[in-house]
Amino acid sequence: MIPQTDPKAGYAAYAAEIDAAIKTMLESGWYILGKEVSTFEAAFANYIGTSHAVGVANGTDAITLALKACDVGPGDTVLTVSHTAVATVVGVELTGATPVLLDIDPTSYCLDSTLLKAALDALPTPPKAIVAVHLYGHPANLDVLLPFCAEHDILLIEDCAQAHGATWNGQRVGSFGAAASFSLYPTKNLGALGDGGIITTNTEAIATAIKELRQYGWRQRYISDIKGVNSRLDELQAAILNVKLTYLDAENSKRQQLANIYSTRLGSIAALKLPQTQPQATHVYHQYVIQVESATVRQALMAYLKEHGVATGIHYPVPVHKQPAYTELTTIPKRLTVTEQAALKIVSLPMYPQLTPENAELVCNRVLQFFETQI
Fold it and tell me: Is residue 340 part of a domain?
């Protein structure tokens, strides 16, 4: 079986270096907020092109603490999308703010920026922030988002959980907004071997606030000047990430090569909608997502591929506003048509840097064979 993703292969590729880094960390005797974390924070900030990066416990906390550090809280409204991991909305709600969900662009699967003016008109007060999700490795439309936020005094927070290394007009995502959140979950383009997250910003006051919030609101040890939480990236994961960060660009290049194989081989199938990249963007293919004609075809395709040794996934099968815990959320427009249709038809093919070109070709052969049976 060719897996849809394979974090174990990501460890095996650098096992000797990772094991050595872990051993050094263990022998140091310092296991929380030590040298490994500070080294990773500095290296990641340098990689993204920001002045600061602050490690936290996971990607959800990264969204929450980024928003809180920007003074987003109860009584505020935050615009984001429903076609995302539920963590995006959880992160907003944990601040006490109210998420309002917008539809997505049918090409990029990111926030439909043409709906921003309608959202502004529909809300009783302007939103405090927009959380722009750079989904599947493709950036949201920053050419529209940045001037819109500037004009209306709205904070832009980037959700970069699936876009480590992606660029817009040559600049890495995570460096545009007031702050940006990254997940370091094992399957991400830059993944730890457990949970982890990091926040980037160019504003020193925001970075300072995040550092206080992630550790009980301490400005000095044991004294909570503000109400904070326990959300620290630990030394073990930081040691692993310090190794893996050095390979991120090379691994993103492998993802792009695999995506090129898929796009070239599957481009002849009229019944498939393949990923597209905007001219301003660099896509880093956290996922390679195709879209078929119907839920029935998707079910048949996934079953066929599984039977023939290819695992697939759906990112994501149920939009947030359709999930039982979140049906009360406001959506603009009232029905998120593109989001709801995409959720019925999308399929994620195998995508990870250790996937061989030969196996990518095999995946293509199986997809082609399936559609030949449909004729």
Answer: yes
194-215 tens-digit pLDDT: 999 999 999 999 999 999 999 9
pLDDT score recorded for residue 253: 98
Whether residues 321 and 254 share a domain: the answer is yes
CA 363 to chain centre: 25
State how far the Cα of 296 lies from the Cα of 306, in Å rounded to an integer: 16
pTM of the model: 0.98
What is the dihedral sign for C-alpha 330, 141, 189, 44?
negative
- Are 290 and 355 in a shared domain? yes
Give, rounded to a whole angstrom, the gap between the first and last alpha carbons of the chain: 26
Closest CA to 70 of 88, 92, 86: 92
Lookup result for tokens 């974090």: 7
d(CA 317, CA 340): 9
Q: What is the CATH number of the domain that holds 38?
A: 3.40.640.10
Last residue of a domain, one of 245, 266, 295: 245
Q: Note whether residue 1 is domain-resident.
A: no
Query: DSSP letter string over 194-215?
Result: S--EEEEES-HHHHHHHHHHTB
H helices of 214-294, in order, are: 235-245, 248-266
User: Which residue range is the domain that position 142 belongs to?
Assistant: 7-245
Domains identified in the chain, total number: 2
The pLDDT tens digits for 20-31 are 999 999 999 999
Query: Do 260 and 212 sit in the same domain of this protein?
Result: no
Taking alpha carbons only, the member of 181, 212, 142 closest to residue 53 is: 181
158-178 burial, b if ≥16 CB within 10 A, otherwise e? bbbbbbbbbbbeeebbbbbbb
